[in-house]
């Protein structure tokens, strides 16, 4: 069995058996990560370039750790300290890196479709680590994997994604991944931050946070992506927090115990208060832990397709 | 021109009571070197070596009811040397080692020893669990003269002379319905 795709550009390209295969492989890597020696030699003849044209903490560290634990050679590159600022094109930059015999490229880029573009123009295998407001496939995989870990399965679970759906790549990838796995998905946020055609993906839309939380098993709280907002989408951050911020009072008022997720970075006190983020119901740090195992699985399965 | 067809020819090398006697002999040989197994552990290599390890552990528990026989499963998929060099994707199995192998005598087990590459990978894989005092290898079938790397077993069920195109298949009562070792050959018929 192999993945049906040579690159991981988006959840869109994965079928159900791909996702299940990634999860089963990640299960194995999770046990590896709990051993005294957390390293396996699988990718010892593979070189991976992490190319980040946008800021990242978790994703870059998580990919780098995953690569190192698979024994790959790793080179890191971030746009701010590179020749991109001198006017080099994306294809030129990547081809120059590939000329140094790199096999795989993990890329984050501010523009949607950058990964697809790169996959068409360079020889290496591409893993999308977030392209603009489009997709962030490994985040969606680790989110679904964390839900599966918590509940045993994803199918039939009700998941609400709260916040800035319009500018969020995590939202789109999550919707595609969760729907593929048979979960019910709802998005919740101010009308200005919910794209008009989101219903065509088969998700419910709700503008009242309490209604959404009462409906769901899992709430995935997203950050407001101020860096992508060119106009004002809501009057003030304070008003957003009053209407869509999750606090302990709301959480305790629900008649069931829901699971809280957040892809990070958290803006404490905005979309989620500290006591909720650090509560027993929160699996935010499990998500981070699972991220390494999921990324190991993705890299392992892609690399296994041959030299 | 006559059509050439390929058929499989199966030759049973060991089955029934003789199979059981072989397992018992291996157990007695183990006891000779490991006494009551207080410092020794059994590790079966996934996927097929674990059945052998289960069976040997079961027999040892019958012979030594007082002893605590520790036995684990080791998956070597991520340690193989043919990753990215084969057509099909390697699917990993579970590793289950609930004890510490640091300072222990480890008896690794696999059903068939052929090129020795699996054993090399297993030695690598095992290091993630500590530094054993000593490592031994027990194999039910030794396909002689076919090693790619210098690996030699310490305990052998039966030795078989075979050629590369042949396969040795071990079936187990627990999973396949019967205990049997079969040499499978592809025969060209004209």
Automatic annotation (TrEMBL), chain A:
The lineage of its organism: Bacteria, Pseudomonadati, Bacteroidota, Sphingobacteriia, Sphingobacteriales. This is Aspartate carbamoyltransferase. Its EC number is 2.1.3.2. Catalyzes the condensation of carbamoyl phosphate and aspartate to form carbamoyl aspartate and inorganic phosphate, the committed step in the de novo pyrimidine nucleotide biosynthesis pathway. The keyword Transferase applies. GO terms for molecular function: aspartate carbamoyltransferase activity. L-aspartate binds at residues 86, 169, 223. Heterododecamer (2C3:3R2) of six catalytic PyrB chains organized as two trimers (C3), and six regulatory PyrI chains organized as three dimers (R2). Carbamoyl phosphate binds at residues 58-59, 108, 136, 139, 264-265. The gene is pyrB. InterPro entries: Asp/Orn_carbamoyltranf_P-bd (IPR006132), Asp/Orn_carbamoylTrfase (IPR006130), Asp/Orn_carbamoylTrfase_sf (IPR036901), Asp_carbamoyltransf (IPR002082), Asp_carbamoyltransf_Asp/Orn-bd (IPR006131). Residues 6-149 form the Aspartate/ornithine carbamoyltransferase carbamoyl-P binding domain. Belongs to the aspartate/ornithine carbamoyltransferase superfamily. ATCase family. Pathway: Pyrimidine metabolism; UMP biosynthesis via de novo pathway; (S)-dihydroorotate from bicarbonate: step 2/3. The keyword Transferase applies. It comes from the Bacteria. Gene3D superfamilies: Aspartate/ornithine carbamoyltransferase. It comes from Mucilaginibacter pankratovii. Keywords: Pyrimidine biosynthesis, Transferase. Residues 156-302 form the Aspartate/ornithine carbamoyltransferase Asp/Orn-binding domain. It catalyses: carbamoyl phosphate + L-aspartate = N-carbamoyl-L-aspartate + phosphate + H(+).
């Amino acid at each position: 069995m192999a993945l049906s795709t040579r690159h991981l550009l988006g959840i869109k390209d994965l079928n159900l058996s791909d996702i299940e295969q990634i999860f089963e492989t990640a299960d194995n890597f999770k046990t590896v990560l709990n051993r005294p020696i957390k390293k396996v030699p699988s990718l010892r003849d593979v070189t991976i370039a992490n190319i980040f044209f946008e800021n990242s903490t978790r994703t870059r560290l998580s990919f780098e750790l995953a690569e190192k634990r698979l024994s790959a050679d790793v080179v890191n590159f971030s746009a701010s300290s590179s020749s991109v600022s001198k006017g080099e094109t994306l294809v030129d930059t990547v081809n120059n890196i590939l000329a140094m015999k790199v096999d795989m490229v993990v890329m984050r880029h501010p523009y949607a479709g950058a990964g697809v573009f790169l996959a068409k123009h360079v020889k290496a295998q591409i893993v999308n680590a977030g392209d603009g407001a489009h997709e962030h496939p490994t985040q969606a995989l680790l989110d679904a994997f964390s839900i599966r870990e918590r509940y045993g399965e994803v199918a039939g679970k009700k998941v609400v994604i709260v916040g800035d759906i319009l500018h969020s790549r995590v939202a789109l990838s999550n919707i595609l991944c969760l729907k593929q796995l048979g979960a019910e998905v709802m998005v919740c946020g101010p009308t200005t931050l919910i794209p008009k055609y989101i219903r065509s993906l088969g998700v419910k839309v709700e503008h009242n946070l309490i209604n959404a939380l009462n409906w769901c098993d899992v709430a995935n709280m997203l950050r407001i992506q101020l860096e992508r907002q060119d106009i004002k989408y809501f009057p003030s951050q304070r008003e957003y927090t009053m209407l869509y911020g999750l606090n302990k009072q709301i959480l305790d008022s629900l008649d069931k115990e829901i699971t809280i997720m957040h892809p990070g970075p958290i803006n404490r006190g905005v979309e989620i208060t500290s006591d909720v983020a650090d509560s027993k119901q929160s699996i935010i740090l499990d998500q981070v832990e699972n991220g390494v195992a999921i990324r190991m699985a993705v890299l392992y399965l892609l690399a296994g397709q041959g030299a | 021109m006559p059509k050439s067809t390929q058929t499989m020819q199966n030759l049973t090398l060991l089955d029934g009571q003789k199979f059981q006697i072989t397992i018992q002999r291996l157990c007695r040989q183990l006891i000779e070197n490991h006494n009551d197994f207080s410092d020794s552990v059994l590790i079966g290599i996934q996927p097929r070596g674990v059945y052998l390890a289960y069976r040997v552990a079961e027999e040892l528990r019958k012979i030594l009811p007082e002893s605590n026989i520790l036995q684990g499963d080791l998956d070597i998929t991520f340690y193989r040397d043919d990753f990215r060099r084969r057509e099909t994707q390697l699917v990993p199995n579970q590793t289950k080692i609930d004890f510490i192998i640091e300072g222990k005598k480890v008896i690794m087990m696999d059903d068939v020893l052929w090129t020795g590459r699996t054993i090399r990978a297993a030695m690598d894989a095992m290091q993630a669990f500590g530094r054993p005092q000593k490592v031994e290898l027990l194999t039910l079938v030794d396909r002689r003269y076919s090693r790619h790397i210098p690996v030699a077993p310490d305990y052998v069920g039966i030795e078989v002379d075979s050629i590369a195109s042949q396969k040795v298949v071990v079936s187990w009562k627990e999973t396949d319905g019967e205990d049997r070792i079969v040499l499978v050959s592809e025969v060209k018929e004209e």
